[in-house]
């Protein structure tokens, strides 16, 4: 049976892992390669490196970080943040990324999804959707949550799939870093609307939050940063807990 | 493995593989692979690895000359390993690209996983997805038991860690336990046949590992499957010896 994946996210700025709350108030959380090695030993299923303040001059630093993380890692590695062009994606893949995650650039020009899927296959293209509750629905935001994209999250996820995305990385801006639980309504709405896997992100705090997002939220994978970085929850303990509750995980 | 000359295993680059990851994983188990620029470069290879992700159509790049060079090595008893799309290419072909022939070393044709769409998705299925698949009438006689729970969503592509169930013995699965988990990412699969040494289930059973003498293939990505994946690569290298 296909396992539910537990994914650790490393938000990286200038070669260091940082973590914020509601996409702000960043604080340092460690060395990327060290954290990656620790998570791997604990049985993490996948890693995401997100360059949260990517600029042109820092892109080389990101490639170095990806290379350092990928060196001893034999599980899937996704890289996102500041991937705007085919060249950016090529640099990430060349450095060892198995998947690239597109966000703002895909909103600006959705044909980039199709281009990258054509070149690397859909399995290598993740579309990251940052969403915030807006009335009855969920609104998409671009530029690290700064700008409204004037799109509905469910509708955008469907378009991303149709254009060739292999997975959706769905982050609740409302819940990011708050540890009050995933937004299961948002996750279920998107997961039911697409055939590709949906990775839920934003709000993980307790072990039960993961149970909730895999059941009520219909998530295929759950991503967290804060709860793992500060060793509040070990990956192993989380998986044991999920297994006891009948949720298939890799152990 | 003592006799293995450094850089004597050919890694075929046809523009559809994550060569970096495959090379890195092989390096971790003690083998440095070289990427042949032309079919002639395959001539002295001690073994051949065909990686691959993406569409079956990508294998079209491997034209008659490449096919001849690779088949010549197989004819000499040199091991051949296909990974993911590279494994599917070992078969006769795939419904993903019906006019594109496979290597034909293994019997059978690859087909799309049926899956089961979420309810709200059913109304907007594209003609080339599940509805079309249902018309292929996979009855019980083809040996593939379809066991779909009525309300379970089976997403296609099949992405993530899934278990392999071993069938019989083969050098590729030495030291690997039934129930071990490996990382998959694909929509098309190869049928379960006499060459299947491990199966995986995702709505239906399909071939996860195949081996017929010196011809072997894995549907998952051993280079991304942690210790289990590295063990399988190590086993294969033993065969290269």
Describe this structure in a few short sentences.
The complex is a heterodimer of chains A (251) and B (241). Chain A has ten helices and twelve strands.
Q: How does this structure look, described?
A:
The complex is a heterodimer of chains A (251) and B (241). In chain A, 36% of the residues lie in helices and 29% in strands. With 251 residues, chain A is α/β, with parallel strands linked by helices. Chain A has a single domain, classed as Aldolase class I (TIM Barrel, Alpha-Beta Barrel). Chain A has an 8-stranded parallel beta barrel, surrounded by 7 helices. The longest helix of chain A is centred in the first third of the chain and has 12 residues, at 59-70. The two termini of chain A are 13 Å apart. The model of chain A has no long low-confidence stretch (mean pLDDT 90). Chain B is α/β, with parallel strands linked by helices and 241 residues long.
Instruction: Kindly name the structural category of chain B.
Output: alpha/beta
From the N-terminal CA to the C-terminal CA of chain B, the straight-line distance is 4 Å
Strand content of chain B: 15-25%
Count up the helices of chain B: 6
- CATH class categorisation of chain A: Alpha Beta
Number of strands of chain A: 12
Count of structural domains of chain A: 1
User: DSSP helix count of chain A?
Assistant: 10
Mean pLDDT of chain A: 90
